């Protein structure tokens, strides 16, 4: 090993060791709002973010898509912020902002120069305290959501998750799309939107993260000043139906007018993302298709030239995760052939230990991902909120890498054997829509 390589390795592990420890302070306000503070004064940047415990799975099934709709609606304005001004104030003060919604949570965040911390806290408290929910705002955002659906869900393969969800789940609301049905939004009344906000957007159903160039004591005082007056709401009680285990292969054909090349999908319903097995399945998906040197890509795309694209994804969710194999055929290769080839690699994992070299490569990948995810104040804030809300363990930001490193090759084999058998999945032929003529 040359001195240059040795130095690079040394610097990498020093960086990893420093990145591995994220200091944070957490506490609750009297109204139940959970607060997490992370002080990092290396750059004059601060992020204020709020994650609400509400997502696509929440609400009546004849009113799907409300959480995603509110992701947009809560930028409309408040009693103290005129309509449309919310999104002007932030860039005018040197900031950026965004929001996103999953089946399990909704996340808003603002990034400002650190001397604008108070502004960020005020904006997020306004969103929580007294947003304006009226007919004009609902009509405006209804059109925005419809356009988003046209751009994303009606794009080629944009319905993949929709097709998987509606076939992997029969009872749990994960079976419905996160963006919801447009007719549900069209039919909803203003009273229904207001009731949804009142139920899910209280301080005791949220976590506030303030990270970056802050003074901790001053921030604690400002947080209390801006959020302390928000009244708590009744506790959200969820009682989702449980899914029966899949014990026989389910074969499905789905059609999509927006695709030209057929695809094959094999989807498994698995335990929620906070379980140890879910972390093992992360490693299995990375082993199978984590980059161009991965097992499936090398085999099906590079060497045998049977696939245009191949992927194994472990989609983590709170109640049930989804592990899915996906491939697009090259030329006249059949979908059955692609599935057989992917199953062959799954069987190898189930019956043989992956090589020590591949195992070390996996650990290196997860180390790199860890460093990358926590390399910015925005990444740290997102991780802190996510680990609190979805994993009930904020300190995963410091010990998640240890968790991955504790997973053995034998455990990878055993978990693959436990969950990834053909009789535990839905096999979907995803085809271009038939000609009606």
TrEMBL record:
<dbReference type="InterPro" id="IPR050626">
    <property type="entry name" value="Peptidase_M16"/>
</dbReference>
<dbReference type="Pfam" id="PF00675">
    <property type="entry name" value="Peptidase_M16"/>
</dbReference>
<keyword id="KW-0732">Signal</keyword>
<keyword id="KW-0862">Zinc</keyword>
<keyword id="KW-0378">Hydrolase</keyword>
<dbReference type="InterPro" id="IPR007863">
    <property type="entry name" value="Peptidase_M16_C"/>
</dbReference>
<feature type="domain" description="Peptidase M16 C-terminal">
    <location>
        <begin position="188"/>
        <end position="365"/>
    </location>
</feature>
<keyword id="KW-0175">Coiled coil</keyword>
<protein>
    <submittedName>
        <fullName>Pitrilysin family protein</fullName>
    </submittedName>
</protein>
<dbReference type="Pfam" id="PF05193">
    <property type="entry name" value="Peptidase_M16_C"/>
</dbReference>
<dbReference type="InterPro" id="IPR011249">
    <property type="entry name" value="Metalloenz_LuxS/M16"/>
</dbReference>
<feature type="coiled-coil region">
    <location>
        <begin position="339"/>
        <end position="369"/>
    </location>
</feature>
<dbReference type="InterPro" id="IPR011765">
    <property type="entry name" value="Pept_M16_N"/>
</dbReference>
<feature type="signal peptide">
    <location>
        <begin position="1"/>
        <end position="19"/>
    </location>
</feature>
<comment type="similarity">
    <text>Belongs to the peptidase M16 family.</text>
</comment>
<keyword id="KW-0645">Protease</keyword>
<keyword id="KW-0482">Metalloprotease</keyword>
<feature type="domain" description="Peptidase M16 N-terminal">
    <location>
        <begin position="35"/>
        <end position="170"/>
    </location>
</feature>
């Amino acid at each position: 090993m040359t001195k240059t390589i040795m130095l690079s390795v040394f610097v990498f592990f020093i960086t990893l060791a420093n990145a591995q420890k994220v200091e944070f302070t957490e506490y609750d306000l009297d109204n139940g709002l959970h607060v997490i503070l992370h002080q990092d004064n290396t750059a004059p940047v601060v992020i204020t973010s709020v994650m609400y415990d509400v997502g696509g799975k929440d609400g009546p099934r004849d009113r799907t898509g409300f959480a995603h709709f509110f992701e947009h609606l809560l930028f409309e304005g408040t009693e103290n912020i005129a309509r449309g001004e919310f999104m002007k104030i932030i860039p005018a003060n040197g900031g950026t902002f965004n929001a996103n919604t999953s089946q399990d949570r909704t996340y808003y965040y603002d990034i400002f120069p650190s001397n604008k911390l108070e502004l960020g806290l005020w904006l997020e408290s306004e969103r929580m305290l007294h947003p304006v929910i009226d007919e004009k705002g609902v009509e405006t955002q209804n059109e925005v959501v419809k356009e988003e659906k046209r751009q994303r869900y009606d794009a080629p393969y944009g319905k993949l998750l929709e097709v998987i969800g509606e076939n992997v789940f029969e009872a749990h609301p994960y079976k419905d799309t996160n963006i919801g049905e447009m007719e549900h939004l069209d039919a909803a009344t203003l009273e229904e939107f207001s009731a949804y906000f009142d139920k899910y957007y209280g301080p005791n159903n949220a976590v506030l993260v303030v990270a970056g160039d802050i003074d901790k004591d001053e921030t604690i005082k400002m947080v209390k000043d801006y959020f302390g007056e928000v009244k708590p709401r009744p506790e959200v009680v969820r009682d989702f139906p449980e899914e029966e285990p899949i014990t026989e292969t389910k074969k499905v054909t789905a059609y999509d007018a927006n695709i030209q090349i057929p695809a094959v999908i094999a989807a498994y319903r698995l335990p929620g993302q906070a379980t140890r097995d879910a972390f093992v399945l992360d490693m299995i998906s990375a082993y199978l298709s984590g980059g161009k040197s991965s097992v499936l890509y090398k085999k099906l795309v590079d060497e045998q030239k049977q696939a245009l694209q191949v992927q194994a994804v472990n989609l983590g969710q709170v109640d049930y995760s989804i592990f899915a194999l996906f491939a697009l055929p090259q030329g006249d290769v059949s979908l059955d052939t692609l599935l057989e080839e992917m199953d062959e690699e799954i069987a190898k994992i189930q019956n043989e230990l992956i090589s020590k070299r591949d195992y070390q490569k996996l650990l290196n990948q997860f180390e790199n991902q860890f460093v990358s995810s926590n390399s910015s104040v925005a990444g740290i804030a997102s991780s802190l909120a996510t680990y609190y809300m979805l994993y009930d363990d904020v300190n995963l930001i410091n010990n998640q890498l240890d968790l991955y490193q504790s997973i053995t090759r034998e455990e990878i084999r055993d978990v693959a054997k436990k969950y990834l058998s053909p009789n535990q999945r839905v096999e979907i032929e995803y085809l271009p829509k038939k000609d009606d003529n």
